[in-house]
Amino acid sequence: MVDDNELKRLARLRAPAPDAEARARALAAAMQAFDEKNSATAPQGSESRLRLTDRITRIWRAMMQKKLLATPAIAGLVALPIAGYAAFYLMEESPFRFDAGEVAEAPVVRQETTAAEPAKEKEAFAASESRDVLNRLQVVPEAAPKPEAPANYAMPQADELSSDASGLAAPAPALQGGRVGVAPSVSATSKSMREQSAGAAPPTDILPPMEENRDRFAEFKTNPVHATATDPVSTFSIDVDTASYSFVRRSLKEGVLPQPDTVRVEEMVNYFPYDWKGPDSASTPFNSTVTVMPTPWNQHTRLMHVAIKGFDVQPAEQPRANLVFLIDVSGSMNEPDKLPLLQSAFRLLVTKLNPEDTVSIVTYAGDAGTVLEPTKVSERAKILSAIDNLRPGGSTAGEAGIREAYRLAQDSFVQGGVNRVMLATDGDFNVGQSDDEDLKRIIEEKRKSGVFLSVFGFGRGNLNDRMMQTIAQNGNGTAAYIDTLAEAEKVLVEDSASTLFPIAKDVKIQVEFNPAAVSEYRLIGYETRALNREDFNNDRVDAGEIGSGHSVTAIYEITPKGSPAEMMDPLRYGEASSQNGGVANADEYAFVKIRYKLPTEDVSKLIETPVTKANEVASFNAAGADQRFSVAVAAFGQKLRGTDQTASFGYDRIMEIATAARGADPYGYRAEFLSLLRLASALDREDR
After folding, report:
1. Which of 7, 154, 279, 448 could form a disulfide with 287 if both were Cys (CB 3.0 to 4.6 A apart)?
2. Other beta carbons less than 10 A from residue 266's beta carbon
3. CB neighbours of 664 closer than 8 A, spacing ≥ 6?
4. Contact between residue 27 and residue 105 where contact means Cβ atoms under 8 Å apart
5. Domain spanning 230-313+503-563+584-687: CATH superfamily
6. Ranges of each domain in the chain
7. What is the rounded average pLDDT of the residues 249-270?
């Protein structure tokens, strides 16, 4: 038996030379003294302390006996420190160590000590351990027996412990979690303790705790197949947004297949510039080209490819621009891929504007404020300084920011020019009107002013894409997602004309299929842009806009009459016929109608295009390179969404089509697409 005098004598001993054998002896002597002082029957040379669960049980039992939990308020106040102690105990006092390959070397912070202080520290440690956490809560527990340690528990040997020259075991370093010093989660640590208490080997691959992903995307179902005999008309709003492609790219480059609802196929297809034939003059804002070709993933169906090209406004003809930068500077924007990237992106845009254009800046966090009154771009240094001085912090009063930005845009309104609010955010509106429907109503009200809207999403983990799509689709707006500075350059510099200068608004497409030639059809993409049939002729219904030089593509997969690919049984009583006993215009596949308004007008105009055999090509390879490449992108988007029609169409075949149709690629967008195909193929286990 070692008494207190022996411990004091041990404390006065001169520390031995710092060699391995001396350290082992010192550690063994200290542990033996500690055990024998506290329990004559301590097993395996370590203190037999109560398990965490036993300690918590004792705490609650004592508190209940003393009636400390008479009210829910007191119960809540007491429960919080208990939970905190439990987490602290699990993370800091676990006796188990991990292999060096699994942990990050964390520095041990200690004060300078004399040679006699190590034993004193050990003694003080033993004394502190004898105090129960209940003493801190001013609760005296009843006596409780010490449970024995599990029989299969083995104390690590002295030479297995990490120790310093003083002979004291160094604190266990934190687990590696992608960053040095990131501690393991409580659940991971407690699981490790349970496994080792049961005799299991230490884990060989402990993952860091996952950060909560609060990205919000609208859920939608892939377009179904329609029977032409019963539902011959398809109506939808045009969509020139590209946000989905950028988000898909970011997911794949991070080694993760995107969730299906993050994939909007039309936005992937429309991400790329295409050399469609455009109109000859601004009097006709866009031209449409329709091509019918065999379907590469189904030999019994065909694709009806509708390509629209907007009139390209030449630089000398660009109208004056009145832009309001509405910038989210809330606390959630305090990440490298949010506010700093946003600032760099808007600096790029300012360099692209003409000297007579004006820029205003409104920011919003806890509330909204005007950072820069309308300022001509000729004062570029003043504008750039205002952008550079933005700092994040606070909650997100998005509604107040929107109202202030539209007020500034209206006060500086340029007749015959471009008036646009450019909202840059991660979409986390949490002050004021934060509900999507409420924001939608505000935007619908503001679009009547003639001010257009662009929405730019930044960041990940807190991205509210659902809200951004809602306000963009209902406010004469467009949406893009900026994940890199290269994407900012594409959207705000290379595509600045189409981003800033609208040539048509409320653009709708309606296709009527001929039941005598087409038995079934399905629209690829545009699920979130569907309109009712009667909306096509209703000028009060909002739709998408087309900017200068924009390329827009829509693709239908159609099933010719009598094809083996028909999925629906024919009607028992036949199909409707015209008064002359046959079907009118029987030589047509379909009839395409496009309705649009000029940016400053409120009455729509109509463009009509019949689709006949003259629009058909004999083979898929006979179609143009741009048509084939866009079909490859559409196939890729459908694969990522898990669409049934492309389930058996492999990535290798998509790669073959895209590679053959790559064509001119001055900015490398198509080369990057090929790399994304390879990444998806490697990640998609179901395709192997």
Report:
1. 279
2. 28
3. none
4. no
5. Gamma-adaptin ear (GAE) domain (2.60.40.1230)
6. 4-197, 230-313+503-563+584-687, 315-500
7. 96
